[in-house]
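Long-time lurker. I teach an intro course on protein structure, and each term I like to show students one example going from raw sequence to a predicted 3D structure in token notation. This year I'd like something fresh instead of my usual example. Would anyone be willing to generate the tokens for the chain below so I can use it in lecture? Attribution to the forum is fine with me.
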Amino acid sequence: MGVLLRRVLDGHEQVAEWSPDDAASVDAARQLLKRELDAGYMAVRAENDDNEPLTDLPADADVVILTMPMGGG
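-- Reply from a regular --
Happy to contribute to a lecture. Here you go:
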């Protein structure tokens, strides 16, 4: 079972949940992820240390975290 979480000030809120064996749940989570990416969020797979931004939902992921890009300068 995978979960899509959004970082918020006091932790995380669940946005979607899917099962790799359930194509409809994966598709629904992919659509929600795309909507969040289009709104300016970035997503990373929590179980990877490389923190490469995602552009699509990996159906085999356990946790994908949405966050707003951090500025710097």
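Some talking points for your students: The first helix runs from residue 23 to 38. The chain has a mean pLDDT of 92.
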